[in-house]
Specification:
Layout: H1 5-16, H2 22-35, H3 43-57, E1 61-65, H4 71-77, E2 85-90, H5 93-105, E3 113-116, H6 119-122, H7 126-130, E4 137-140, H8 147-156, E5 165-168, H9 171-175, H10 177-185, E6 189-197, E7 204-212
The protein binds the ligand Cn1cnc(CNC(=O)c2cc(-c3ccc(F)cc3)cc(O)c2O)c1 and magnesium ion.
The ligand Cn1cnc(CNC(=O)c2cc(-c3ccc(F)cc3)cc(O)c2O)c1 is lined by residues 40, 66, 68, 92, 141-143, 169-170, 173-174, 198-199.
Length: 214
């Protein structure tokens, strides 16, 4: 039967990227998305903003919601210090299979744990299953209607500390209006909006950075 877009993306990485070279994996995916098939990776423009925030935070514990094919996982993992605990959650098992192979092609499989399941189920298990107390950095890039319930879950589970940084993709397109309203009206967050564009297009999009104030 016909292959899927993630499977075709994986083939492009295995053909065009150098094993063990994260930069070449990132470039191969961006090339595939610009010249072959659009895909919902965070992309190069928003990816550079993601890089700058990760570098600034220099986190010891990282959580990504929405692995998809592992593009942002590779972008984040390549910047982390040794010993950093990095967990990424993906609910779609076919995406998990592709992501693990793309992450392995980049040589970053020892830097990150890809967990299959829904964020609503897994977030409350972070402490017991992975020995996490709090997350220093969280990248939200999963279902846009899950951003709000999941940030509330982080608060309820005591997974945020004073200074924890959350970075949310797609707050304009497809959009996460309820999430934006929540963080921007809450006294517990300091927010900054980074204007950009929907990956590989001229459509307006952006990232919202929110620092938990405790
Ligand atoms: C299956 N699945 C695994 N992860 C998810 C959650 N991510 C998204 O839904 C997502 C969607 C879009 C997008 C799609 C169509 C369109 F016309 C415009 C934008 C862009 C993104 O950057 C996203 O992160 C879904
Ligand atoms: Mg996204």
């Amino acid at each position: 039967t016909r292959s899927t877009r993630p499977q075709r993306m994986l083939k492009a990485v295995q053909k065009n990227a150098t094993k063990g070279n994260p930069e070449s994996v990132i470039s191969a995916i961006d090339y595939f998305c610009k010249h072959s098939e659009w895909a919902m990776n965070v992309g190069d423009e928003k990816g550079s903003i993601l890089d700058s925030v990760v570098t600034e935070v220099n986190p010891s514990t990282v959580l990504e919601l929405g692995t998809y094919c592992g593009y942002s996982t590779v972008r984040i993992a390549r910047l982390l210090s040794p010993g950093t605990k990095f967990i990424t959650l993906e609910f779609n098992p076919a995406n998990v299979t592709v992501a693990r192979q793309i992450i392995a092609h980049a040589g970053l499989q020892d830097k990150v744990t890809v967990v299959e399941g829904s964020s609503g189920d897994l977030i409350p298990q972070m402490k017991e299953r992975f020995g996490i107390t709090t997350f220093d950095f969280i990248f939200l890039d999963h279902w846009k209607d899950r951003y709000l319930p999941d940030i509330k879950l982080f608060e309820e589970c005591g997974l945020l500390r004073k200074g924890s940084v959350l970075l949310a993709d797609n707050v304009i397109c497809p959009g996460a209006p309820e999430y934006l309203e929540y963080v921007r009206n809450s006294p517990r967050y300091e927010n900054r909006y980074y204007p950009a564009h929907l990956e590989y297009t001229k459509v307006e999009d952006g990232l919202e950075k929110s620092v938990f104030l405790g």
